[in-house]
Amino acid sequence: RAKREAPRQEGETHKPGSPILKRSPDITKAPLTKSEQLLRIDDHDFTMRPGFGGEALIQISCLEPVSSINKDFTMTLYLRHYWKDERLAFPSTNNQSMTFDGRLVKKIWVPDMFFVHSKRSFIHDTTTDNVMLRVYPDGKVLYSLRVTVTAMCNMDLSRFPLDTQTCSLEIESYAYTDDDLMLYWKKGNDSLKTDDRISLSQFLIQKFHTTTKLAFYSSTGWYNRLYINFTLRRHIFFFLLQTYFPATLMVMLSWVSFWIDRRAVPARVPLGITTVLTMSTIITGVNASMPRVSYIKAVDIYLWVSFVFVFLSVLEYAAVNYLTTVQERKERKIRDRLPCTCGLAHPRQLIMGTSYSDVDVNTTGTYGVPENGEKQERILVHLALGDDRTTSRRKNSRSYVSMWIDTHAIDKYSRIIFPGAYILFNIIYWSIYS
After folding, report:
1. Where is this chain compositionally biased, Basic and acidic residues type (predicted)?
2. Distance CA 110, CA 103 (A)
């Protein structure tokens, strides 16, 4: 029996009504859904663009901190495209649209938009791809997706941190020129919506606005480009606390040395060195958090001028110390020429009969010997040189050498000049950059 049925299995002819001639379905091809059948997905070639141009509308939901170091910004937005594709028109009695997820997007034509000058970008996919497609009976299409993009921002940091920056997010078609695809904002500036809760730690968002321009590529032609422009003003309070206020304190601290006695070398020298090193640390810390630009920033001007003031206060004490040493040498030579002073207990006895000048006790000379709690700081010494044998001859032949011992005049003037110059610098600086 098996032998009799074998020829039937190997035979090539069968009865026309035999069920073995029915073709089995192609399991490699997924069946069309009802919505795809309604939209006639298989009836059209969606690799070709539709006849209409595109419109765009964007809602910005999040603007993350703008980086001055990398000169970029990160933005999360809902990018919505509007266009009309008559191939997707379908009959409808109630004129209601149909909404689809990202699976249908892969089967129809969508604009090939990309972000110009972007460093990183991605479409959110939690829990599924954040993509929405809405089709209207007349063929109008709404295509929305949630995107996070990190793009470059050409910042001018010459006024940092008192600067205002304008950044742009640029959107453009990659393949279609302006002859094939026309991009424009659907409602002008009203096409851009922002979340009221958007805030930045370092910047104040002043305004958003949109523009449309043409971009030219020498090898491919002209393309429509959409711009999202936003203006940011940097918050200054953080830098006042972290940079300007400490620098000002260091400059004021360096002025304390003007009120310290010149002989207190262990007090004045470490004070000057400490303020210089602290200013160097502040400058290094600010530059470490900034991009290495080839131009001078506003904060650099303030810090380096403050550094110069601190450094000059150190040089001021060096000048005071040097001039005091020179003065003491001259004084020692004068004493050596007066042998009568060797038996005097104090130099004041030398000038009891000469002219004497009392000076303000706030000056810092210390040549005079303290008497009754007062420091005599300036002494006019008249030295008589000549023959003392007769009084009349002494009056005629005596020549007077007058010398003002005022080694701390530099300190006295520095107490006024340094603060006055620094205040003037601050007035000019803040009037220019604020």
Report:
1. 1-15
2. 13
